[in-house]
Amino acid sequence: MTATAFVSPDEIRARFARAMSEMYRSEVPQYGTLVELVAEVNAATRAADPALAARLARNDELARIDLERHGAIRVGTAAELATLRRLFAVMGMVPVGYYDLSVAGVPVHSTAFRPVEAAALAANPFRVFTSLLRLELIEDAALRARAEAILARRDIFTDRVRRLIQRHADAGGLTADEADAFVAEALETFRWHGEATVDAETYRALAAAHRLIADVVCFRGPHINHLTPRTLDIDAAQAAMPARGIAAKAVIEGPPRRRVPILLRQTSFKALEEPILFLDGDGRTPGTHTARFGEIEQRGLALTPAGRARYDALLAEARADSGSTDAGYAARLEEVFAALPDDADALRREGLGYFRYELTAAGRAAAGTVARDTTLDELVARGLVVADPIVYEDFLPVSAAGIFQSNLGGGEQKAYAANANRAAFEAALGAAVADEFALYQALQDDSIAAVRAALG
Ligand code: OOG
Ligand code: NI
User: Fold this and answer.
1) Ligand 1: which residue has its CA nearest to atom 4?
2) Which of 93, 255, 281, 426 has the smallest number of CB atoms closer than 10 Å to its CB?
3) Residues lying with their CB under 5 A of ligand 2, a single-atom ion
4) According to its UniProt record, which protein family does this protein belong to (predicted)?
5) Closest protein CA for atom 3 of ligand 1
6) If you measure from the C-alpha of residue 336 to the centroid of ligand 2, how many angstroms do you get, rounded to a whole number?
């Protein structure tokens, strides 16, 4: 047998992310405007902050930043979710984290498919926030059965993509031609369809139970509902949005602006009301559907469980009295978060964030001469080792709920009882989701091991 050259999963993912971006740009032109705006803000931010530019270069982030995106989709059945897991695996993307959004009035639970290894993240960190509709949260049994029957009739994957997924599993990779075909065929699952698969009455009945249910159930596939570029300065990007004709959401989700950015800050523009056609008998009746929007995000330091507990508590405190939509919220958030150190060294020494350690030029020169029991803190203090923040690659449930809510046409706050069900989600997925903290810890530990080995 001759050896076959397979295209790397990183390369397939990069091609897919590019194809998806082009498709969404043609479907939702305001997304293209956002991408251009973010590229300008990023260039200006780098130019104004050489230390930031140097750190991005040192951590292999410079090349990825203008390519970086996340998207989101919502599916209706366990079988759809399980096949998506296999589809994303072709691109080196695995499920990380479990998010229960029912507490926030959204009848879904979710994971994020993303690359996990340092080299893969540096090559292209494309991620897809993927939600599974929880039909069991529909109270009306007849309506629930109707939704199940509609979902049972559809196939969101092309035959060819199913064959290529299987081919990848059997052969251990895809050739160049197969990879091209895979990207084109996989894209079909995420495409927008302006024709509903149901009549207007069915759509309205499902939308009345929850608008998200209609979005998941009434179409041929799980259209990508947004694609998010990463900005280095979300406040500058947010301020520049109105001049480009983009109506941004009033409040930036997540932590406040800080000297050392932490976790994830996000803002979006409201979903567009788009014309669709309902299937009424033999004919088509026009209507509208609101689902697709634009979003930008700024990513910062990944927090340890201790840091994350502080974040969650401070966020809850800031939102406790009057929620997160009033005019005073931004100021209140900054005030409350003053309790968390805003200095990379303090965050590191207090074990609140994850860091990547690397030898400096002085450290390389000192190799072989440093006592083995020198602590990391001492190595950093002596300028032999530099510690850079590890970027948060995941999502935040409170922010995600805010993004969902702001795109459901406002005001909709159906409360479901808190009922996280990670076991049911993993059973549907056909696999366990990875623990994000363990992944960051491994990145940090690997960097420390490399420093120790190089020091001798
Ligand atoms: C997903 C919302 C979550 C984010 O950035 O937090 C999300 C959705 O609306 O389907 O994308
Ligand atoms: Ni998003």
Assistant:
1) 400
2) 281
3) 228, 295
4) Belongs to the 2-oxoadipate dioxygenase/decarboxylase family.
5) 400
6) 25
Q: Cα separation of 132 and 152, whole Å?
A: 15
Domains and their CATH numbers in the chain: 9-302+394-435 (3.10.180.80), 303-341 (no CATH)
| Cα gap 408→302, rounded to integer Å | 29
Ligand 1, atom 7, lies closest to the CA of 400
In this structure, which amino acid lies at residue 223? H
Nearest ligand atom owner, CA of 224: 1
Q: Walk across the sheet containing 69-75 and list its strands.
A: 94-100, 108-114, 127-133, 69-75, 226-229
Is the ipTM of this structure higher than 0.90? yes
Alpha carbon of 265 to ligand 1 centroid (Å): 13
pLDDT tens per residue across span 56-83: 888 888 878 888 899 999 999 999 999 9
The token pair that represents 454 in the structure block? 């190089």
- Cα of 227 vs centre of ligand 1, distance in Å, is 9
Range 341-349, long-range pairs (CB < 8 A, 24+ positions): 342/258, 342/259, 342/260, 343/259, 343/260, 344/260, 344/301, 344/387, 344/389, 345/380, 345/387, 347/260, 347/262, 347/301, 347/307, 348/387, 349/377
Three-state secondary structure readout of 210-245: CHHHHHHHCCCCCCCCEEEEECCCHHHHHHHCHHHC
How far is the C-alpha of 384 from the C-alpha of 368, rounded, in Å? 12
Closest ligand by atom to 264 CA: 1
